Amino acid sequence: MEASIFVEGNKINRIVDQYDLRTLDERNEQVIDGKGCLLIPGMIDVHIHGAKNFNMMDGTTESIQAVSRACAETGCTHFLVTSVSATLEELLQMIKQTKQVIGKEEGAKIAGIHLEGPYLNIEKKGMQNAKYLRHPDLNEMAKIFEEADGLIKMMTIAPELPGGIDLINYLKENGVIVAIAHSNASYEEAQKAFESGASHITHCFNAMPVIHHRSPGLVTAALENDDVSVQAIVDGIHLHPGIVRLLFKVKGADKMVLTTDALQAMGVGDGNYLFGGHQVTVKNGVARLKDGTLASSTVTMNKSLENSVAFGIPLANGIQMASTTPAKLLNLASVGEIREGYTADLVLLDKEFNVLRTWISGEIYSKNKNN
After folding, report:
1. Chain mean pLDDT for the chain
2. CATH code of the region 41-337
3. Among candidate residues 235, 240, 205, the one with its CA nearest the CA of residue 222
4. Which residue spans adopt a coiled-coil conformation according to this UniProt entry (predicted)?
5. Cα distance between residue 143 and residue 262, in whole Å
6. b vs e for 73-84, b when ≥16 Cβ sit within 10 Å of the residue's Cβ?
7. In what order do the strands lie in the sheet with 346-349?
8. Average pLDDT over residues 292-307
9. Please, are residues 264 and 49 in contact by the beta-carbon 8 Å criterion?
């Protein structure tokens, strides 16, 4: 639909179907003509490791700010700082640096931290470094929570590991979204995890057992459970378009979240990178370890949205999966939709889904301002 959006301060004040822009000119208010382009709510990335040659596990505020800026440039207004499996000391350092940046972000805002590991199954490690994988340790988690001061919003675990169910209980008590991946959980083990409070699947279908008609596994349990939401890396590599459509058909846009899982090659291009203690080669935009294992992605959120639509997802549903659903998943108030009274987190896209402008809390993001 064609509409005019009125922003006052950091809020969407009013939405009308039509408006005479000359009236605004007479009142000396700033007018931006979208010229028929697409205005959507700011997108939210719940799983991103790096961008622009910066890896957020390198222990610096500079790397987190670089990702914040890269997210804003690609239509993302909130993101979760995401770890890989590492030592306790490295995880604590990442948390400390995140705390330094929150409230001072130069681009997209930090909505919290996503711990991907270290309590993952070595049998489905994917690109996770085996030397850092370990069984759940509640004493270690207590130290992490003490440092994080409420910033841990999501944690990806393998629930079948010894102590996995106790960890789920601990995380739920602390208000954390319990996600599953890098897991070899059987159908029965997955159902037990969901009954205990796990409710999300990280990069669904990747780093977990394939569906077999006599051994349905984790994915079947997740698809069968209406309360479980799923992440999808829609880069044309991690998931076949038919699987993207299947996920959408089964889960719907209110339980399916677009994410990038991007490493520091996002926004840079092909080359060699050090990520998670591994040498990673990016060729034709695809990141792999030496043995051919996929190692995160280089896709952006605006490209994920474009791909989703190209794969057959209706545009309105794709926007919901990129903005509204992750906002609700993270329990973010007044974001993820274009509604009166909501925060003016907005993105203007052209017909090729290129980002023309990003508004964060009512202010236009400018690369020149922050560089």
Report:
1. 95
2. 3.20.20.140
3. 205
4. none
5. 27
6. bbbbbbbbbbbb
7. 38-41, 346-349, 355-360, 363-364
8. 97
9. yes
Residue 306 labelled as part of a binding site = no
pLDDT at 34: 82
Q: Is the pTM of this model over 0.90?
A: yes
* Strand ranges inside 176-299, DSSP E: 177-180, 200-201, 229-232, 256-258, 271-275, 278-283, 286-288
Residues 330, 325: Cα–Cα separation, whole Å: 9
Evaluate whether 235 touches 307 at the Cβ level (below 8 Å): yes
CA distances from 352 to 38, 109, 290 (A): 10, 25, 34
- How far is the CA of 166 from the CAs of 108, 152, 171, in angstroms? 34, 17, 9
Q: Which two tokens stand for residue 117?
A: 């590991």
240 is in an annotated binding site: no
The position carrying tokens 């301060």 is: 9
* Tokens found for residue 102: 């929150």
83: helix, coil or strand? coil
Kindly state the average pLDDT of the residues 144-150.
97
Phi, psi for residue 301 in degrees, rounded to 5: -65, -40
The residues carrying an active-site annotation are: 261
